[in-house]
Amino acid sequence: MNTLTRRSLVAAGLLLSLAATVSAQGWPRQTVTIVVPYTPGTGIDIIARTLAPRLAPRLGQAVLVDNKPGASGNIGASAVAKAAPDGHTLMITVNTFTITPALMKSMPYDPVADFAPVTKLAYGSMALVVNPTAMPVNSLDELVQYAKARPGKLNYGSPGNGTPQHLVMEVLKDRLGLNIVHVPYKGAAGANTDLLGGQIQLMVLPLHTALPFVQQGRLRVIGVSGEQRNPLAPDTPTLSELGLKNLEADLYFWLAAPAGTPPAVLEKLRKESHDILAMPEVRESLLKQGLVPSPSTSEEIASTIRNDVQRWKKFVAAQNITAD
Question: Domain of 283: which CATH number?
């Protein structure tokens, strides 16, 4: 390589670096919109509305939350994938995003290639719970013994085929060798009602949903997802502690931008998001909703997303699971 060529390459690299810096310095030039691909009141929406008003003064522009529900999150996610990669359109989503590609024959976007993950924001534990009257067990060992003595006679519910509650329970059944019948409902409300009424015996629920009923004695938690105990239930063992290693059943939430967004913009968003998550009032507010702040690097959350997309594709195909 001659000297002129080397100098040209160095100059080109400096120009690219300068362009990224300039684009970050000039950003944002207008309102920043955080798309939530689900309805108001969901965990994603709560996180977005906690983050947005605190992010706005740090960026010097208004930050709005735009709910775009529908098609299992695909409407909102597709809008973000097609948006200009200039840092003015963002998305907060949850790991149902990594399940949907396994259940649909075609997708309006590539869940990996079309997005630039910024940071993980929070997680929520899932709990394996039983109705203690309909299924009088106190531990995972007792649950396995009880179920194996009644193959095909016990029922578990979920908000619908292909939901995280459904797939996590199918993973548990597969790992434990259980024959328990899945009863899909049209949403969580009906499933929760029948669990409390004893029409179904067990279920996987978000921990914060289960806890009020546990405190009333109407449900019993057998174990929770995650490698570490959840601060909302520090005395409750994880399923990992009980022998179910690498279950990876937490709900987790992250911030993303369209692919091609300048790295300096992504880094600014990551830093400001981490600073906000470190605020005591933010942590307390999220914990009250069952959400544990859990910031990450961009590389860490990107790797998790890639791995989960492949993991669910393989599992759904192997179990012949279909969407509603």
Answer: 3.40.190.150
Number of domains in the chain: 2
Q: Which pLDDT band holds residue 172 (cuts at 50, 70, 90)?
A: very high
SS (H, E, C) the chain: CCHHHHHHHHHHHHHHHHHHHHHHHCCCCCCEEEEECCCCCCHHHHHHHHHHHHHHHHHCCCEEEEECCCHHHHHHHHHHHHCCCCCCEEEEEEHHHHCHHHHCCCCCCCCCCCEEEEEEEEEECEEEEECCCCCCCCCHHHHHHHHHCCCCCCEEEECCCCCHHHHHHHHHHHHHCCCCEEEECCCHHHHHHHHHHCCCCEEEEEHHHHHHHHHCCCCEEEEECCCCCCCCCCCCCECCCCCCCCCCCCEEEEEEEECCCCHHHHHHHHHHHHHHHCCHHHHHHHHHCCCEECCCCHHHHHHHHHHHHHHHHHHHHHHCCCCC
* 223 contacts 237 by C-beta, under 8 angstroms: yes
Work out whether the CA dihedral 137, 143, 149, 151 comes out positive or negative: positive
Tokens of 181: 């019948």
Q: Specify whether the CB–CB gap between 228 and 237 falls below 8 A.
A: no
Residue 148 lies in a domain: yes
Q: Predicted confidence band at 321 (pLDDT cuts at 50, 70, 90)?
A: confident
Residues 211 and 289 in one domain: no
Residue that finishes a domain, picked among 190, 210, 242? 242
Is residue 323's pLDDT more than 70?
Answer: yes
Q: What does the mean pLDDT of the chain come to?
A: 91
**Residue ranges making up the domain that contains 86:** 29-123+251-319
- N residues, the chain: 324
**Which of 324 and 163 is assigned the larger pLDDT?**
163
